[in-house]
């Protein structure tokens, strides 16, 4: 696949977090659900991988869900 096990795990966690952020859940709860005990580390890594903070990403997802759009 061209990536290390650590990169694979990180990418899997971020993808799962993106799915969960489309729901009305706290970012802290989502961070814990995908394996991060430190919300600041989760936020930093999420932004590095997606270009958006988890809070901003969630707001965008909620707005597009309310408008009937798919992101």
Tell me what the structure shows.
The protein is an all-alpha fold and 71 residues long. It has helices spanning 5-20, 27-33, 39-50, 54-66. The longest helix has 16 residues, at 5-20. The mean pLDDT is 92.
Number of strands: 0
- C-alpha-based Rg, rounded: 12 Å
Task: Report the uncertain regions.
Answer: none
Mean pLDDT: 92
Structural class by helix and strand composition: mainly alpha
Oligomer: single chain
Q: Percentage of helical residues?
A: 55-70%
Shape: globular
Largest sheet: none
In sequence order, what are the helices and strands, one letter per element?
Answer: HHHH
Strand content: under 5%
Task: Compute the separation of the termini in Å.
Answer: 26 Å
Supply the number of helical segments: 4
């Amino acid at each position: 696949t061209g990536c290390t096990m650590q990169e694979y795990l990180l990418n899997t966690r971020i993808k799962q977090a993106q799915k969960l952020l489309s729901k009305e859940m706290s970012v802290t709860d989502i961070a814990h659900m995908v394996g991060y005990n430190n919300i600041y580390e989760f936020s930093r890594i999420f932004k590095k991988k997606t270009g958006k903070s988890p809070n901003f990403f969630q707001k965008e997802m909620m707005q597009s869900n309310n408008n009937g759009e798919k992101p």
